[in-house]
Amino acid sequence: MSLKGATALVRLAQNPRCEVLGAMVMQEGPETRFFERVVGTPYDREYGERQSSKRRGTQFERNAYAGDARLLREALAPMVGLQPDDIRVRNLLDDYPGTKDDARVARLRITRRLLADSLAGRAAPHLIIQPQLLVPTKPGPRPYFFIAPDVLVWMQQFGLYVPADLKSFVVRENEVSRADLARVRLQLGAQSLALMHEYDHVSGGKTVVPATGLLIFSHPNGLRPHAPRTEDLRGAREAVRLGIEAFLRHRRRIDGLRAGAEPYTVTTDLVPHFEEACLAQCVMSEWCRSSVAGRTRDLGDSAGQLLGNIELARVTGLLLGTTMAASDAEQAIAAELQRIANEYGVRAA
Amino acid sequence: MMEIHELRQEEKELERRLAEVRSQLSAKHQAASGARFIERRPLRELILDTLGEARTPLNSLLIASVFKPLYERDVPATRFGTLSADEQRSFDSSRPRPVYLCHCLTHDRGQAMKRFWARSDWPLEDRIIGPMTGRVLFLKGAEWVIQLASAAGEGADADRLRFVAADQARDAGCQVQRGNFPFRDWITHIQAQITRYSESDRAVRVQAGSELATRLGERALLFGAPGELTSIPGTSKRWTAKSS
Fold first, then answer.
1. What is the pLDDT of residues A60-88, one digit of tens each?
2. Above 80 in pLDDT, residue B230?
3. A152: which strand partners?
4. Which residues form the domain of A317?
5. How far is A270 from chain B, CA to nearest CA, in Å?
6. Do B115 and A94 make contact, defined as CB atoms within 8 angstroms?
7. What distance in Å separates residue A46's CA from the closest CA in chain B?
8. How many CA atoms lie less than 13 Å away from B31 in the CB half-sphere?
9. Sign (positive/negative) of CA torsion A336, A338, A343, A348?
10. A29: how many CB neighbours lie within 10 A of its CB?
11. Any idea what DSSP says for residue B155?
């Protein structure tokens, strides 16, 4: 699985300071191949989505889209402001099925036309299933990211489409864990940015797209859609925008270093930014972690933020009082460390 | 020039008669030797026959799901793509066919909806997709499958067909309980829904048909009008400033 589309933008938004991530996004081919080429050994740890999750997601989407999206129409009728039977649906996979780029371009063309039809007051569908959007990052390698929300929903409140994503997570009472919610909000944020771009494309910048998205989770039983959750995407959209800006910076630097070679060739010259979350989602996490070995960041994000990225040996010295603090900030840290050491009876061996 | 035209017409007529003879022959073989002859028939012929029986455009997903119980054949999704390309190549060749497999067309621009299959010998308005036609076609397809299942005898294939029918009924909003197949109730429910949309949907399709017939050539009326150019990546400088 290569790092592209909304997944790449979400990862960049989560860790915009990591240049290695920028190189991974620029590199063609799967992430594991990137690891293999940089480290020199095959990636032998767990990787990718579980088969059971994929099957569950596929079945949930199948259920939601079946019968001219009957279940979705029922779930989204309050947002559209019509009875389910009166909602118009267009599944762009019926127009042009497939996942290759030519199919995506064809669906992008149709999506743009439908957005224009809607703005012009012509009969447009209220639900566009599997639309195709695009976030431009030209000029340069990776000049755009294809973004494909599950559904665009025409909301009566705005008179515009907003992105909606189907999630087959097991949730109770429509509540989802904070970590999952943060990730899917960023995903919606990327979709909302791409929708802004497409609306700009068809209306010449006259349309202000609301920072709103819909999350549609599955009922625990039967894989049926829950009532949609309306999400405020102001923060997520800004985070993704910053992630894109970071990618443009990384790309400039990598392009300057690589002189036409493939991006992975300059990985050792790049500045990684290791965070705890990298361990759960990036194949390069252990490699990047080696850059903070023996320093406070290796203890975790909180330790890194609290103590600064100083050497652990220096922290030990401050704690035991064998090292002099070099600044007022370090003095405060040393005092706090010594208080903790006294409380827990920590002494030099 | 006139002579060539006449010869082409004659060739077309002969192809049509040949297709009729082949169809009769296949029916005789089928009666004599069961499903084995069906397996040898080309996919396009089977799909043409299926569409002829259904008398409504069918979605390729539905075609694939009924082919297993009807013809003991698996049809991978990618096969429909090559089938479409083959059919267009055949149309472009110098040997015309009496009937082509073709796509339904969007009502406004006449572009192909590749997953919806139709026959070229149907009236144009029956091959057009209006804003609500997707739902009507789903319902008609579901009704057809349920009728097939209700007429099926016993055996593994008939069982499989009943399950496909039950899936269609559930998707149409009918009550479905495991092991129960109230075909009559399902059909009544679905027909009531079709009635709700059919008149206004037909009006849109008839009007669109007459407009598209004047705008598009013969090939585009079968396989869809070509799409306009798409700018990739297309952008304006303003968009990044409006995100907050």
1. 999 999 999 999 999 999 999 999 999 99
2. no
3. A128, A163
4. 294-344
5. 27
6. yes
7. 30
8. 5
9. positive
10. 15
11. S
Structural domain count, chain A: 2
Q: Which residue of B has its CA nearest to A244?
A: B240
Among A281, A315, A283, residue whose Cα is nearest residue A299: A315
The answer as to whether A148 is a domain residue is: yes
Neighbours of A39 (CB within 10 A): 14
Token digits for B18?
A: 């040949």
Do A58 and A204 fall into the same domain? yes
Confidence band, pLDDT 50/70/90 cuts, at residue B241: very low
At residue B5, does pLDDT exceed 80? Answer: no
A216 and A317 share one domain: no
Which contiguous run of DSSP H or E holds residue B128? strand B128-129
Residue of B nearest to A66 (CA): B171
Q: Is residue A167 in a domain?
A: yes
* Helices B133-151 and B60-71: angle between axes, nearest 10 degrees: 10
- Tell me the CB-side half-sphere exposure of residue A125, using CA atoms within 13 A: 30
- Chain A closest CA to B21's CA: distance in Å? 34
Q: A200 lies in a domain?
A: yes
B116 near A CB under 8 A: yes
B146-189: per-residue pLDDT in tens?
999 998 877 778 899 999 999 999 999 999 998 899 999 999 99
Residues of A whose CB is below 8 A from B113: 94-95
Give the chain B residue whose CA is nearest to the CA of A210.
B243
Min CA distance, A234 vs chain B (Å)? 6
A89 contacts on B by Cβ (under 8 Å): 134-135
Which of B59, B108, B231 has the CB atom closest to A94's CB atom? B59
pTM, to two decimals: 0.87
Cβ neighbours for B169, distance < 8 A, ≥ 6 positions apart:
B142, B146, B176, B186, B189, B190
The closest of A34, A95, A89, A45 to A67, measured between CA atoms, is A89
